[in-house]
Each structure stands twice: as C-alpha cells, then as structure tokens.
Amino acid sequence: MQSVWTEPHAQDAPPGFVPAMCPGEVAAVESLLGYEFGDKSLVVEALTHGSFYYPYRPGVTYERLEYLGDAVLTCVVSREVFVTYGQLQPGPLTRLRAANVDKEKLARVAVVHGLHRFLRHKAPNLDGQKSFVVQYSDLQAIGHERVEI
C-alpha cells in the first residue's frame, strides 16, 4: 500500500500546514453571520474539512467545533420546541427537534446565507452535495417541503 505522503514537501511540512484563509474571507464570513469573532482562527477551523490538508499531514478541522455545536444546538432547539409546543408529547417533540437539527436542513441554511462559498476542502463529493443542497434549497423556497409532526 502506497503512503499518501509521497510528495517530498508534504513530509517536511509541519503538522496541519495549510494555506491561510485571507482576512478578507474571514471578514466576509463575519459579515454574513453578523458577528465578529475575537479569535479569528475559529472561523478558519469551522470552515476547514479534513480533505483540505491533502497531501500534507492532517491538521485542525471543523469536527471538534461540530461536536460542541451539535450539543449546543440540540439543547437550544429542545428548549424552544418544549416551550413553544407545550401540549405536545415527547414523541412529536423529538421528531420536531430532529427536523430542525438536521444536517441537510442546516446545510440549506448555510447555502441560503452563502456560507458554502467559504468551505475549505479538496473533496469532489462535497461539491456534488453542495450542488444538491442548492437545488433543494431552491425547491424549498417555492414551497416544496413539509415536515410532519
């Protein structure tokens, strides 16, 4: 089996070496979010897929932030559906929460707001998924989505 670290410069690169995200891109993301990050490296980390480092040694990716964000989002949405739908039983509450803390739904939100343009990756399949999400978002905008409770 051939190693993925076949390029000579990849062997010498420090762990996590990757071209920097320009300050203008970080500022554009902050503008889209309406939030200024004290630690700009969080923006870069949140938008960096593991494939972006190839052929260099793996570095920091979005996955640790995703772990934390999933927990926070689940907590916030759980509280919101619990308070908003006070008469619903746990089963429907769970389905409603799941419908709103859904990978595809969150991807559509990112596309609608233009965040997908800043994803840092080298995975062709992600481009295909982004294309699907963009098309699905267009359908949603004209009313072709309905969530059953």
Automatic annotation (TrEMBL):
Pfam families: Ribonucleas_3_3. The keyword Hydrolase applies. InterPro entries: RNase_III_dom, RNase_III_sf. One of its GO terms (cellular component) is cytoplasm. Gene3D superfamilies: Ribonuclease III domain. SMART domains: RIBOc. GO terms for molecular function: ribonuclease III activity; RNA binding. The keyword Hydrolase applies. Keywords: Hydrolase. Residues 26-120 form the RNase III domain. This is RNase III domain-containing protein.
